[in-house]
Structure formats: structure tokens, C-alpha cells
Amino acid sequence: MYDVLIIGAGPAGLSAAIAAREWNLNVLVIDEFLKPGGRLLGQLHQEPDGKWWNGIEESKILLEKAKELNTDIRCGISAHTIEKTDHGFSVYTNEGILEAENLLIATGAAESPAPIPGWTLPGVMSIGAAQVMTNVHRVRVGKKGIVVGVNVLSVAIAREMQLAGIDLECMALPAINSATESHGSPKKVMKALLRIAHLAPSTAIRFGSRFMKGDGTKALAVKFFPKSGVKMWGMPIHLRKAVTRINGTNQVESVTICDITADGEIIPGSERNIEVDFVCIAGGLYPLAELAAVIGCPFQYIEELGGHVPVHNEQMETPLEGLFVAGNITGIESAKVARAQGTLAGLSIAKRKGQNLAKLENQIQQAKMNVRTIRENATIQFHPGIEKGRSRMEEAYYDIVHG
Amino acid sequence: MNSHRILDHPVLGKLTIEKEIPFTFDGKKYTGYEGDTIASALLAQGIRTLRVHEESGSPRGIYCNIGHCFECRVTVDGTPGIRACLTELNPDMIIESGKQQFSPFKSTENQDDLPRTYAEFEKQLKGEKEDEPDV
Amino acid sequence: MTNKNHAEVAIIGGGIVGCAIAYYVAKAGIDCMLIEKGDLASGTSSRCDGNITIVDKDPGFDSLMSLASQELTAELEKDLYLPFEYRTQGSILVCDNDAEMEVANEWVNIQNQAGLKFKLLDHSDIRQESPYFADDIPGGLECETDSLINPYLFCYSLIDRAKEYGLKLHTRAEVKQVSKKEEFLIETTNGSFTAKKVVNAAGVWAPFIGKMLDIEIPIKPRKGHIMVGGRQKPIIMRNVMEFGYLMNKFQRERIADPETLKHGVALVLEPTESQNFLIGSSRQFVGFDARVDFNVVQTMARRALRFFPKLDDFNIIRTYTGFRPWTEDHLPIISAVEEVPGFYIAAGHEGDGISLATITGKLIEEMISGKETTISIEPLRYDRFKRKVVHM
């Protein structure tokens, strides 16, 4: 019986393990992937101050700290189901049943699919898949490709692929269908895109920010968005072009692209083919929360947090006794926020174990402040309403627990 | 071999290879590197098709690369349904791609022709050798 | 008046029973609406398997009702536009031991005398059914007319066609209150509706609707687990169940391990059109606790391996539970309610909702239209429970 079992060895899970080990808890961390680090591993971008955020190095720092504290981390373990027991939790895995008094689910996020015809062809993959192949495994996913879907994540990863010397034709939107929805709407994409303006010292930003004063002018920004797209690091980003189809027999050979109106409607006759041998689809992230659902944790749908999120409070506790959550499962934010949330969750679990309360309480308050500060100073913000989403979650928790 | 590797990276530096790992995929011998998943080792060889759709036979490769979509399932040392994107490449692994399977009953076909027993199904198979899927 | 918030008939519940009622009522030209708290088939009808069987029914009224349903489903295949994976391959029951084989023999004789197409299967017939069966299975029996559908697709297919016949559909509308003055007023989370007649087709949730009109409906949720096996090579062509769970109908003791008996586990294996395999089943009274119980799943898996030992490398891709609307005498309630004129109940089908949905829809339409019913509805009356004390 562990004091705490942590599912997910990403920034949240590892930070929680470190905090819990510092309070001498008996901790086990499990992860499905073959190495710890989670999605932090693939991250590589330049901060506004010019320094590189290197996910592999950041993971190493966490891992070394965890190792110094003799933390038990096991990779290649998949959890399929969890049962709440009288004493805690039974986690069913491919290596047997693991028992723990407390459970932290830090499973991160998954990518929403933005399917377009032909997307099952080999050579089509999610943008996150390409990121891991490029930065973690150091494998080139193809010779020349296109990124379908323009959002915070895909712009960042497109840049990472360029860095690795991979040729990208351009970025464009997925053609609107019932599954791609807002990812295919230039107006909505433009609005989202401007939030990462500071990451790209380019014309797109200067162009867009002029129009960002009011909602009416945002529509204008799309209307006047250059036909040839704007270039970020030499690669065109098109908001008025959409990919309607991916073509090929045994693998990707080309895409069919067309011009679209500001509302995303296809302009007839504008279709043409572009030869590429890979396609990255970017539909944005949503919290990966099935395991919390399986145990019966209540959920709340909060758009600003990325979708259905397990209800939790600021200390990362859920209404289910002994169940905690941290990282992107609580809402889509950066790895830095996940790391701070992990530390907070680890401390909250130590508190539940009845550790030295005065000192611990002090640390918890600091950790809470830390999450808030990091959130405020975030370089990458996935949703502008994140603060609003977070306070809606607080209310949902209050309603369920006290309500 | 491994021609699709990114050997040099302006920020991450040179690729350091700790150890080579030999393995077999559909009967052919390949080499991957320590730290590879089955999917990354194969993609480094330019191999993108990991299985075909069981019914249509259309080719499939990795999609999500985080174990969520199950598009990359292969058979490893005789065990089917293994996700290539999450599974660590181990020395001398025997990996087989997923194959097309028979679909003996499509309700859109004439109900009277649907086999009721396995014996009838086998009899029908013998009758139509021409477009036999590869199983 | 014909506006979207009013109808002659309001059907509450968008499961397979409600959808079938909506289809027949709309097809009869009656102004009707269907009110569903979630999406179509979001309750029991998407947490079940897809058998339309007689093979396990008592001869007499039970099998008569199933046979009528089978015939109606065959007709529907011609009238509905969206395919629903309808396959008429028959189904089989397999016996675990010689004691069961003896009783199966009696069963077949009784069914044949009733004019139903049953046939006893011996050891070599079982080998023909599937080379994956255990060698020691003594035999079983076949019912030639049994069929399979995909219940989820079937619901959508029925409603697709019913809408053409004029059905008004209101989903995401959870009924909060039903009252009756001149006509019924149905208040939901997605608007208020009025109707002259109301059909309560809310399955395990039917008692909650009943309570709103002070009508006590003796239906209890009985939980069942189903495992879904991943797509793989064909192993059997049609639905198979084990004879064991019919043993108590003959007042004979079923021979099985204690866990199997405790959780009410009996083998059901349904090969779906897409070559997934639905493996069941269990029966438990645990209220509305929908959580998957791993002990039950393990017991079900062991039971499946008793009959199909070579499937020990089967990939199970998920497991789900559903609540079957249980009644004390195992027959559904398909009935008008005397106390509240214009109020009908069509619920309580337990594990036979898929088998009996079409006949239920037809009967309700006939009752509403004042026609003579296709089969007798006497045994299905709501007031049959009043004659004795019901233990809830």
C-alpha cells in the first residue's frame, strides 16, 4: 500500500512526487511511455528573453531531483481501470493491481482530432506525434509537409520542426466540416492566434495587433489578412486557405487546398493540389481525464479549460476523498503551470497524511501563490479566459462539496 | 539504414547513440537505437505502414503517438494489439504488421448468403479463392 | 393546433422502446413527440447487446411476443432507410454438462410442439459452429429465426424515419414534472410541452416519471456488464448463449462455480458485424451504481474461457455496464393506467428490450388508436402487480 500513487510522470506528476518525497511519503509514479517527462520531453521554444526552453533538459532536472529523493518511478505501465476501496484506491495495470491510500491523476492532455478526408493515410499524424518524433526520437517524419490547423500548439511545433531542418510548405486551416468546427473558421483562429503574437516577432503580429482593440475590428483583421498568408520564420501561415482532402494510395502524396471566405466557406474553383509527403493535423488539446471518470469523480465542462475537467479545488483535491489531480487534466496550460500545480498537489497529499501542519500549511500557501504567479506570467496562454475558467471550477467544487 | 534520423540539431546538439538494437519487422531485419519505440525505429527506416484496416485493407500508420488512438497496433513476439508508439524496442523483437481479416457477414449482403456456422464460412471461402485476403 | 411544443401523444424516453413507439405512432399518422433527457440511445440501449431471440424464451406468451417482434423487425428492414446491421443467422445455446443437455432436449421438444423452429445440436454440430469451442461441450440447441441488430443504429434509424412521418424530437430535455389537467403538461430542462396522451417509455427511469403522477411502477434497475473484444479473426458466425441460466426455469440446479452463480454470470458472445465481440453477461441488484466491478468482469472472462478456451489471447478493448429494467414476473408493462386516463406505460423489459421493442411499439400504437392488438396484452397489464404485494 503506497501513501500515494501518481499516474503520469510528466511535469505535474514528477513535481508532485518530489514534494511528497520531501515530506517522506511512500510514493510510486507510473507512466505508459518508456521514459519519464511526459509531453515536456518534446518541448523546445525560445522565450521572449531569448533563452531556450528545452523540455528534455527540464525533464532531466525534475528526474534527478526525484532520484535524489529515491522516488520509485516505473515506466511502461498502463492503468486501465481504478476502483475506490475502503482504504484508498486499487489501480489495475498491465503489471497487476497497485494499491494506494491517495491517488494523483496527472495524465495531461490529448489532441482533439480535426479529421479531413484521407486522414487515415500513413504519413498523416497529429502535430504532437511529429513533435515527439522530431525532438525526442530524432526521427524526420517526412521530407516536405503541411500543418493543418493553426493554433498555439501547432505554431510552436511547426517552428520546432523547422529548427530540425524539416521542410514545411505552409500552415493552413482544415476545411470546415461537422468534426473540425471552429478550427476551420478564420475569424476564430485569428483571435486565438494573436495570443501567441509575442512569440513571433513577425508581420503577422504587427498586422494583427492593430485590429485587436474591439470585436468588430477582429473581423476586419481576417478580411484584410494577406491572400498569400503571413510568414513566420519564412513559412507562410494561411488563414484564408483550407485543406479539403489528403490524397495518396499507400501513403500521403499530396493535399488539396482551396481558398476560403472569412467564415471558412470554400470559394468554388480555387482548389489545387500541393505535393507533400506528410501532414500534421492540429486540433488543439483537451484534458485526458478518463481515469478520473472511471472512479466516479464529478466533472464540469469548462470551455476555457479545454473541455470536461474533473472537479477540483485550488489545492488540487477532488470531491472524492484521497483523489487529487494536477497538470493539464485540470485545464490546458503550460508545462510551467503543470509543474507548480504538481508541487501543490504533492503538498496537499502530505497534509492529508497528517504531516507537521504549521510548516506544511505555510508551504501550501506559497505553492498556491506560485501557481497564480506563474499563470499570470505565462508566455504561452492556451485560452484567454483561463482565470475565468479557474474561478468557475472553484465554484463548481464549492457547489458539490458544500452545496 | 536509419536515414531518417536528425543527426545534428542546432539547439539539441548531435544525436548520441548509446546502443544499437536489432529487430525484425514482417520478416526483414532492421536496427534501431536504444530509447526507440517500435514506431520511431520503424519510421527512422522510412516504414510508415504498421497495419492495414482489418476489413478494407487500407494502410494505417501512427497517428497520435501517445497511445490513445490505437492506430499503430502491431503483433510483437506473437502478442497482438501492441501499440507501437508506446512500446520500447527490445533486442531481437519479432514484430508483425496487422493484416486484413475476413468479414464473413455484412448485413448489406443477401441475408440468405450469410454463413450460419464456421463450417459454412469455410465452405464459402473455398468457393471464392480469387479475392482472398492475406491472412 | 400543431406547434412544436404540443402533440397528441408525447413519448418520454429515447431508448429502443421509445424509438419504436415513436416510429409506429408517427407512421399511423398521429401527431407525436419524443422527449429524451440525453441523446437517443444514451441509456440502457447503448449498454447492451443486440439479440432478438426466442431461443431463451418460455414457450407460450413469451416466445409468441418475441416471434411477433422478429416478424416486425424483418418488415422494418424494408421501411427504414438507415441500415442497422440486421442479420438473420439464428442463434444457439450451448450446454456445459450432460445434465443441461437432458433439459435442453426437453426444451427443444416443447418449443417444437409450439411450432417454433428449434433443433438439438450434438457434439459434432458444435464443432461445425466454431472450431474455437472447448472439446468437452456435449451439445446445445439452435433457434433458426433469431436475429441480431445494432441497437444504437436501430434507434437512430427508427427516429430518422419517424421524423419523416412527422415526429417531433426533443433531446437534452430531462423531464422534471408531469401534471394533468385538461391535458398533460410536461416540464423539462429544455422547454415545456403539452400532450393529450403520454407514454412512459423511460425504462429503468420509468418509476421516476410515474411518481410525478403518483403512479408507483414496480421496476428495479438490474445491472449487467458487457466486455467488448477487439476486432480479430472470425471465430463464430452468430450469437451464442449458454443454456445454464435457463436451468432454473425447469426448477433444476445450475452447476457452476460460486462466483459465477453469485454474480448471475452466464456466457453470451455476440460477433458484431464489424468483427468485435460482445461478451456477457452478469445480473446484479446494486441500485444505480454504474461502476464496472472487476470481480464480475473476471468471472465473465473465466466463463467465456470455459466455452472458448483458445480465446485466452483475446484483446478486450472496453467494458461497460447497463441497467436492465427488471419486473418481478420478468414481463414488461405495456399498458394503459386506469388511474390516469391517457397515461401509458411501456417499460420493464429487463434483458429483452431489444427483442421486444418493435412489438411494444406496435402494441402501444394499437392501444392509442383503439385498434385490436396484434397479440393479447392481458399479461402485460400494469394492474397485475396490484393483485399481490410487491416487494421493492
UniProtKB/TrEMBL annotation, chain B:
Entry GO MF terms: sarcosine oxidase activity
Enzyme kind, highest EC tier: oxidoreductase
Superkingdom of the organism of origin: Bacteria
EC identifiers of the protein: 1.5.3.1
Transmembrane segments: none
Record's keyword terms, sorted: Oxidoreductase
The protein's name in its UniProt record: Sarcosine oxidase subunit alpha
Source species: Anoxybacillus andreesenii
Organism lineage: Bacteria, Bacillati, Bacillota, Bacilli, Bacillales
